[in-house]
Amino acid sequence: MGFEEEWAQLKAEAAERAASTPTAPPVARALPAEVDPVEQSREAVLERLADSRSRVVLLPLDKREDFEGEW
């Protein structure tokens, strides 16, 4: 079985599952009465900062005398 045949079979199976699965009624999401865009942006920035800090690795520089001049 080649790629095209296998892909077509997978698409057909997914379509059958989607057609046979009963759909749930849409859920209404309760939005907060007032969303502060500044606070929302601040939270997003803090999350990104925490994520980037969790991936940073600091390594000590052992031989500082090899470099001339000020840092």
Summarize the structure.
The protein is mainly alpha-helical and 71 residues long. It has helices at residues 3-20, 37-54.
Q: Mind explaining what this structure looks like?
A:
This protein is mainly alpha-helical and 71 residues long. It is built from 2 helices and no strands. The protein has helices at residues 3-20, 37-54.
Low-confidence runs (pLDDT<50, min 5 residues)?
Answer: none
Question: With helices defined by DSSP (H or I, 4 residues minimum), what is the helix count?
Answer: 2
Which of globular, elongated, flat, extended, rod-shaped describes the shape?
Answer: flat
Beta-strand content bin: under 5%
Structural class: mainly alpha
Distance N to C terminus: 64 Å
Topology order in helix (H) and strand (E) letters: HH
Q: Please summarize the sheet with the most strands.
A: none
Q: Average pLDDT across residues?
A: 79
Radius of gyration (Å):
27 Å
Task: Throw out a few tags for this protein.
71 residues, mainly alpha, 2 helices, 0% strand, flat
Task: Draw up the topology in text.
Blueprint lengths: L2 H18 L16 H18 L17
